[in-house]
Amino acid sequence: MIDQLKNKYPLEWENANNEAWCFELPYPEEFDKNGKKKGGYKPLEILERNKTIDDKISKALKGNRDFLLIGGPPCQAYSLVGRSRNQGISNSDHRVHLYKEYLRIIANHHPAVFVMENVKGLLSAEVDDIKVFDLIKKDLKDPGRVFTGLSSPKYKIYSLAKSPNSYFKGYPIYENNTDFLIKSEKYGVPQRRHRVILLGIREDIKVEPIVLSKMDSPTILKSVIGKLPRIRSGISKKFIKYHPVEKYADGSPKRIYQALKDSDQLWENIMKQQVGKLETWGDLIPNEFKINSENLVNGIGKEFLSSKTPSETDCNIELQNWYKDPKIKGVANHESRSHLTQDLMRYMFAALYTKKNGDFPRLIDYAEHHNELIPDHANVDTGKFADRFRVQVADKPATTVTSHISKDGHYFIHYDPMQCRSLTVREAARVQTFPDNYLFCGSRTAQYHQVGNAVPPFLAKQIGEVVLKLFSNLNND
């Protein structure tokens, strides 16, 4: 596939190759408690790699001093889930200091403007009782305090969500760190994605940025995915029993599964069995709810399906035009993943429960209906993941789409119980506001990663408009 693209589009391939560069930023050598190297580079290697980076940047800039730098230092050390998993943040974790690689580029190349993005957890992250965010802001304001050998200018640090409360010697002052938090749902994105975004302007530039304009009302999930071609879940296997002898590494008994060959008829039979069980476990099944695979004529979907959504009646005209490309006359990457039959029963229960109660069930709700609905996970009783199966609510913005969607989809269950599945790559892309003509390639896992790790393009567009106005004013001065 890659060779075919290279041969058919040599010029486009060369341009893409020049534009995108995969290169690991250097960080000091790290060793485990036994003295075994875990990763990192020797001091001379760090100097060599930094020189390679600087040469690449200088060649691209061609002496242009007024350029924009955009970056998002790796966020695993700051994320709430990562900190919980690792019992906090350690100053010895090189990931805590990776923002300094971004800072070094600022200190050495002096962009006119920079935009830096990171996770919400950065606001509460602490190392040795010092707030990491306060330290980062201090360093970004004066990169020369860290890189003393580089004659770096200072920067004024702005929020994109709020105007400064005051100024001190021309530098903006904000009362709260949360002023730097961008809540995507306030800016037309159908997702409650909250990210920290900083805007830096070089001290010699006397231009004030505007803030992002909030939308009058949120964009709800069903307005962007509700009219996509309806497809059913795929079926992969069925849990049979536990192995009498063999165990996993954690000591729990191994599970034995039966592989199933997916088909419309098999899906319909299994769904009807599950509906029968759910009817005996409560009153969630509405009278009009009838399983029939013929109502889902697209099956599990495919790489491309004809579609004319969204329309002006679904979402605001600006977002509608953002998604649609009339030349493609459909959507790509709209194919459901395959699921364990027991998980599909939980998906159906969760979607029906949410439809009736307006919110997705927690594990206690599964247990109250029937113990067969309780997931077979080692940490099911710890209370850490009480919301392991989360249905996305139709008339609200979705929850944050992350790269975790590539693992199992349990946090991203479609609100339609008839479809009984997790979101497809295209649906996740709609939630993230990728235009429909953006094709995701690679394995499905890779596609979900590409979607989940991105800044929502519709929000990026609005940030870009703020920055463009800055540069327009810069050129007029």
From TrEMBL:
Any Pfam family the entry gives: DNA_methylase
Active site: 75
Coiled-coil annotated residue ranges, if any: none
Molecular function GO terms recorded: DNA (cytosine-5-)-methyltransferase activity; DNA binding
EC numbers: 2.1.1.37
Reaction it catalyzes: a 2'-deoxycytidine in DNA + S-adenosyl-L-methionine = a 5-methyl-2'-deoxycytidine in DNA + S-adenosyl-L-homocysteine + H(+)
UniProt cross-references to InterPro entries, sorted A to Z: C5-Methyltransferase (IPR050390), C5_MeTfrase (IPR001525), SAM-dependent_MTases_sf (IPR029063)
Biological-process GO terms, alphabetical: DNA restriction-modification system; methylation; negative regulation of gene expression via chromosomal CpG island methylation
Keywords annotated in UniProt: Methyltransferase, Restriction system, S-adenosyl-L-methionine, Transferase
Record family assignment: Belongs to the class I-like SAM-binding methyltransferase superfamily. C5-methyltransferase family.
Official protein name in the record: DNA (cytosine-5-)-methyltransferase
Organism expressing this protein natively: Algoriphagus iocasae
